[in-house]
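Why should sequence recovery work at all? Because a backbone constrains its sequence more than one might expect. Tight turns favour small or flexible residues, buried strands favour hydrophobic ones, and helices have their own preferences. The token representation captures these environments compactly. In the example below, the structure is given first.
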């Protein structure tokens, strides 16, 4: 894979930017330019290639759920996490209440809002500063910080997530201060990253939890296995299965326009394209990944068949 291929992939994806819209339910996000598209790829050998708007800062949004899940698994273990959520695709939108409101059910998985908010309660003892330093380390990006404008914008429009959080409390899935949990969840969604930071994170996930350049183990191998499986099955919300068929890589999207993809054992990929489809996934970003996966034969199940 080289930069010429990335350029072709962005050219292939570009028309699809017109088929989506930038998020507006968090008003600050509507300021993004929906035509922008960028990509960065980091191999586990340490090489990097990039193209387009790969240095553009945007908010991580739901891709933070991957870090939150991995950190909660690492620090508090499998049972602590999966007492709070199941591990099934929800088949519903990312902020759906319908699948948890009328039954005894717990959230479907840790990568939809309800499950992620429940998981963030586990991280309260780690706190914002602890999480910030973990995120900076995993993303190899010391400049990651809260985008205050986006945070305030979401915080003042968070009726939906607040409802989910109080519903979780009513089910005994949040014991502590609901507002504190919601604040940390929203702060972690408001961290500013680039496609390169996501590629760095993907590189660590691709390399089984060891940061290749330093040789430091940041996450246990079993944590990586669980996290990548959740990404493959649930990372693109109600578009997860179609994306798995078309691209076949564990991935996670965010409404800031990012997609994190992992080629296990090989590379991490970060994509930026803030024009979103109706499910909240980057419209063109998905096409860019589809192009690369098909051209380079990266689909993980396709490879096993060969
Ligand atoms: N912060 C956003 C929310 O909670 C994240 C959603 C997303 O990226 N899909 O609504």
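From this structural description, the recovered sequence reads:
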């Amino acid at each position: 894979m080289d930069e010429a291929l990335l350029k072709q992939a962005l050219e292939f994806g570009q028309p699809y930017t017109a088929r989506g819209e930038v998020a507006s339910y968090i008003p600050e996000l509507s300021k993004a330019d929906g035509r922008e598209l960028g990509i960065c790829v980091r191999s586990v050998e340490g090489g990097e290639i990039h193209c387009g708007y790969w240095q553009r800062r945007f908010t991580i949004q739901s891709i933070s759920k991957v870090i939150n899940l991995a950190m909660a698994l690492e620090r508090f273990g499998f049972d602590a996490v999966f007492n709070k959520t199941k591990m099934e695709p929800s088949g519903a939108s990312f902020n759906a209440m319908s699948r948890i409101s009328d039954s005894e059910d717990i959230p479907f998985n840790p990568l939809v809002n309800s499950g992620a908010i429940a998981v963030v309660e586990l991280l309260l003892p780690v706190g914002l500063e602890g999480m910030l330093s973990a995120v900076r380390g995993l993303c190899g990006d010391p400049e990651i910080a809260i985008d205050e404008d986006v945070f305030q914008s979401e915080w003042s429009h968070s009726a939906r997530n607040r409802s989910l959080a109080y519903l979780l409390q009513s089910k005994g899935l949040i014991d502590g201060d609901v507002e504190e949990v919601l604040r940390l969840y929203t702060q972690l969604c408001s961290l500013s990253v680039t496609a390169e930071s996501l590629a760095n994170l993907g590189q660590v996930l691709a390399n089984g939890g060891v940061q290749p350049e330093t040789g430091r183990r940041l996450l246990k191998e079993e944590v990586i296995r669980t996290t990548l499986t959740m990404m493959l099955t649930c990372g693109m919300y109600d578009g997860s299965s179609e994306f798995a068929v078309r691209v076949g890589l564990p991935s996670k999207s965010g409404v800031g326009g990012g997609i994190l993809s992992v080629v296990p054992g090989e590379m991490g990929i970060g994509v930026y394209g803030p024009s979103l489809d109706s499910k909240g996934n980057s419209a063109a970003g998905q096409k860019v990944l589809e192009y690369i996966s098909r051209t380079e034969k990266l689909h993980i199940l396709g490879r096993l068949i060969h």
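A few observations help interpret the result. Residues 61-62, 94-95, 113, 154, 161, 189, 254-255, 280 surround glutamine (CB under 6 Å).
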